Structures are given as C-alpha cells and as structure tokens.
Input
Amino acid sequence: MSTQSRLNKVFKAAEQISFDDSSKIVLMSDCHRGDGNWGDNFLNNQNLFFGALDFYYRKDFTYIELGDGDELWENRKIDRIINIHSDAFWLMSKFYKEGRLYMLYGNHDQVKKEKDFAGNNLKSYYVESIKKRVALFPNIKIHEALVLNYNNSDNQIFLTHGHQADFLNYDLWKLSRFLVRYLWRPLELTGVRDPTSAAENYTKKEKVEKKLTEWTKKQKHMLIAGHTHRPMFPQPEESLYFNDGSCVHPRCITAIEIENGTITLVKWTVKTRKDRSLYVDKVILEGPVKLQDYFGAIAK
Output
C-alpha cells in the first residue's frame, strides 16, 4: 500500500471532533517518556513539560498528544515509566477526568493500539505516598488519528503521528523496535545516533515531510503531525503540512496551539530573571494565523 493510500485509509477511519472559535486545543508529541535512566530523552525537559501542561490545564485547553508519548521501544513495560514520571501522568489524568485529553500512538508506542493494552496498563497506577492504586485513564481509547471538524463544515484538520509515511517505522516497526532496543539504545548511551530514525537522519526526515506534504496537496486538508521532531509552520498558500516538533529538543519543547480560530507554534523554555532565579516561559515562534486563511487558500 502506498503512503497516500495508507494516509487516506487512516483519515477516513479517524474519529471526528468538532471545534469552533471558542475551542482551546494544544498539540504536542514525541515526549518519549522513559524509565529515568541515561537513555530517557524526556528527563531533561520533564519540568518544562509539566510547567507547560499546567499552564494549559489552568487555561482550559484540551491536550492532544500526537504519538510517541512513551518510549516503548527501548522499554518493555509502561508501569515503570508511569512511576518515574508520575507527576506528568497525574496532571494528564486531570485533563482526562474533565474530558480534555486525547492520545494517539506513534511508532515508538504502537503497542498501545493492541486491544487490551489500555485496560491492562493505563486504567490505574500505584501511588507510593498513599500505598494504593488510583485511577489514571480508565476506559481510554488510544487513536491512530483524529480529525478536527471546524464549525461542522468541510474544513478539517487531520491529526496523526506521521510515521505512516515512513516504511521502516510503520510496515517494519517490529524490526525497527528490535534494532533500537538491542542495538541503537546501547550505542546511544555512548553518543552514537540512530541512522534509521526520522528524527536523527535529515535525508529520511525530508522524505517523510515530502510525503506528508504531498498528501495535503492532493486531499486539500490541513495535516498536523509529529514523528520528525522538526517543527513546521507554513504560511497560507505555501503548504498545509504542520509539525508540532517534540518535547526532547535541547533546552526547549515545542507545541501547536489552536485558540480563537487561530493556529500558533510556540516553544517553552527556561529563562533567568535578574535575581538569577529560573522560570518556565512560553515564546511564540510563528503565528498566530487565522485558520480561515488556510481554509480560504484551499477553496481557491
């Protein structure tokens, strides 16, 4: 099956969510939450992530995680990841209880698509301080994709991880997982980068981006993905392919916000006050741009 056919199939099967100019949505991906060892790429930015997510929770945003939230290629079980990053999962559970959390799976956490995974692993978690299990994401559905339907019109935004455009990490994901788990993970600890990763290999990254961009041109829909770890924010009439980046950039995390009928690319980073105290700050990288400007360009 070609990439275009695969993306079409995923798009048509995706659950649709209606939104309008009053909606507040934040999109992040590629957190790669690990088990706290030297290979845990999320570890350096965990405070940034918590600070950003706390801001979005207080501002009544809906959080949509576009895949690879948890590093389940390098790690076999998610329970230790939840234990190590329990503060992040506790905050995400608050979103979920209020109906403001959607989770997609990517290639590194593709096991989440298995029928019993969520029920066996995400229903509850053990809290050491009170020595009992509490609810986490009971009855959650992990999606391959979602479609945001703007004002119940034909204007739609396709949300997916983006690994569908990556043969090695989609069709052969079990082989890739084996190589990462037993070859590249040990080498990563010595500083060697994985050449099979779209996030590390620039040639591979550009091929994936080209395929995703081609889909938007043919189907006339906006697409927001992750996977490559490279933020993308085109201007109207340039392209309809967006990328929210990742939560494992050195010294920052990136996200895409949809609010007041606009779309914005932001980064969260640590800054220093004059008294040398540190704080987490949001910086606008691109936008805000009205969604209608993109939908208007499609209609032309």
In short: The CA atoms of residues 184 and 194 lie 6 Å apart. The first helix runs from residue 3 to 13.
